[in-house]
Design a protein that fits this description.
Helix 1 packs antiparallel against helix 3, helix 22 packs across helix 23 and helix 23 runs parallel beside helix 25. This protein starts with a helix and ends in a 30-residue tail after the last strand. By secondary structure, it is α+β, with helices and mostly antiparallel strands. 29% of the residues are buried. It is rod-shaped, with a radius of gyration of 64 Å. 47% of the residues lie in helices and 23% in strands.
Length: 891
Amino acid sequence: MADKRWQAGGGIMIPAGIMLCLIACTWVVTQSGLDSSLLRFFKTADPEVVTDIVLGGLVVCSFLVAVGLWVVSTLRRVERSQLRRNAFVSSALNNLKQGVVITNPRQRIVFLNDRYLEIYGLSRSDITSDMTGRDLLELRRRRGALDVTIEEFYAEAAKPEGLVTELPGGRSVHVKCFPLPNGGSVATHEDCSEQRELSRELASTKQFLESVLENVPVCVAAKSIENGRYIFANRAFERFSRFSRDVIVGKRADEIFTPDTAASIEAADRAALEAPDGQFRNEFYVERGSKKRVLASSRVVARNDKNEPEFLIALFDDVTKRRMLSEELEKTKKFLEQVVDNVPVSLTVEDVSSGRYLLANRSAETILNRRREEVAGLTAAEIFNEREAKLIVARDEAAVRNRKSVTEEHPISTKNGLRLFLTRRVTVLNEAGEPQYLIKTHEDVTDRRQTESRMAHMAYHDGLTDLPNRAAFLQALSQMIEACTDAEEEFAVLSIDLDGLTEVNDVFGHATGDKLLIEVAQRLQASARGGVVARLSGDEFGLIIDGKQPVAGMLLAEQLAETMSKEILIDGKSVRTGLTTGISIFPHNGTDAASLLANAGAALSRAKAKSRGTISIYEPEMDQQIRDRRVLHQDLSAAIKNGEISLYYQPLASARKEGDSEIIGFEALARWRHPVRGFVPPSDFIPLAEESGLIFEMGQWILREACREAASWPVPLRVAVNLSPAQFMHGDVVSLVHSILLETGLAPGRLELEITEGVLIEDFERGLALLRRLKGLGVRISMDDFGSGYSSLSYLQAFPFDKIKIDRAFVVNLGRNPQSAAIVRAVISLGHGLEMSIVAEGVETQEQLSFLAEEGCDAIQGYFIGKPLPIDQYNALVGRTSCAEPARRTG
């Protein structure tokens, strides 16, 4: 618009300019005094010349005017262009995000944009025309928009990094000042509050991420894909590699690790780069020092904004222990699977909700009638026949409802026929307490129950004749007493001794004697008319016969004697024997089983005293000894119940010529202090206990108490306990010993069981089998009173006794009887030849000890070492520090 106006004005001004030029020329001429001459010239000159002159002047003036006008027009156009340029620059600077201040060489402000005023809260009215840069800073200081001095401002703002000032409200301004070539300056002011906040957040985030990476327990490393050099490693990586990150960063794997380890790392890197998703996981071995470790590694390829691979990030953890545990777990799993597969019982696991089998071992194939691999996923209805399946499901459901272990025995059809199984069902609950699994074990107890039945039969029956034994006889006798007490009936008890059995054994051998006993048992049963017949001991039998007494008893005894008087042929040999009988009558001769049997035995003793083959009926007036024996038996029964029986302990020592002998153990001996009689000798009450059957209860207590006491000794000495033939041969002595050892905690090797040859005489094969089973428990077996009875070298040959005890009868006569010395010397030599220890009983003098030690006897026992005393008298010997002084040798 300005240019158009300028062009219009120019067209009007041209004629005016010409006129002004003419007027100016006229005025010049007039003023110069040339008017008169000029007039004269014009008057005298040729008019045409004058006209030419005038026209020429006009032309010259017009030219001059035109030149002037062109100059003025050009200047005006330049000025307008400059104004437009300044307006454009001013508009551009006012629209910048940064505040701009420009000063001239005199430091006066020549430009200040609107953004500057906005940043510092100023207005145009605050800015004067002659304001300098310092004045502007002073104004800001007064307004609280400058937090540094003016000198500090100029000094810091002129630096390349500039100056950051803080404004009220938490805003920050970044100022940079640049000098201009003309000596002035230009300064930029940028509000960087948001940028600084973002920087702080970025720094905080970066610090947090670095802290996380530094403290995670997993090794983290990053490397450049371009050159394969590490650019980052966290602390876990440092700890694992045993290098600082200063060493790691900038290095390749082959510069840090061994060649094999570096090769494994580089192979994993290549796999990650070649993976479609840029990820790769694996486990590999690395060498760290002298050990190999297993690393679980995860690698991720990081890409730039152009989707080009730039970095490789590796995370790995040392899983050596986990691998070892995993391998150990796998081994354990395989081991348990082998154990489960090879346990001798059938084992199955069912899912409670579906009733389907989840597991079955090899042994279960017997009851499932199919391979274990075929069982998984099947139900009972799909495995068993309909009747058995219903029964099994019903029992399973009952066990699940009960939620406890349920045990029962029932028959199951197998390929080997109907077998008896002991089934245990256990319900396994889940975390919510609901039934989840049902574990079943099936143990084939058919053979065991048959064996137990046979053993139960053996416990109450004689192994040779299959007749009831003493225990069964006493039980039957008690039942008979109970049945006849209220009915006021009588019955007789016959105690029968087989005459001549010892002679038959000596002449024809034990095999013939055994056959004789079998034949006698059969004849007794055939003649007993339904009465109870039992074998009470080696050659003693017992019978119970009802009817009118004593007539019925006498008639039966006579009939039996007549039967036995007939010739008996055994293996073509003619054998003759007889019977001696004692009879007691219920209720006249006793109202309990022990009394009746003891009185029948007393009558038998009287009959033997008279003559073999005699029949004797018990009479209360026989003699005082029999009555005392009966009273003593009753007192003994009460004593066992009332705890009047106690144990004394006699020490056993090693045999040494000089100095004190070393105590190696004790023998437990039963003692009975009668409330009236005082101490009753064992020789009185032990045979009585054996005859009456009380030996079983008393012997069990003695064995348990001796083991309990020995287990409490700080010094682990051995303890010896005597077993009578009656106790040994009747009842399950092996199970008794085993249970007592478990109950008391005594080591089996510390227990010695002493037996006499009577154990083997009565039933050699059974006695030998029991000794071997006892030996299998780990206890020691000793032959007591060797040489005093019917000791046979065949016993020592058949069973490896741990110890032989020389009877005191031979030891007492040492030094007085050469035969005793010869026998002792022979027994010691015999025992050592059979690798058995030798113990001499009854040592009472130094001379006896010296002889035994010189002959190589291993141990001694007797009053010279110590008397049988309560164990608290030997506290020091068993390692107890309280109570009595150590026992000293006597003699």
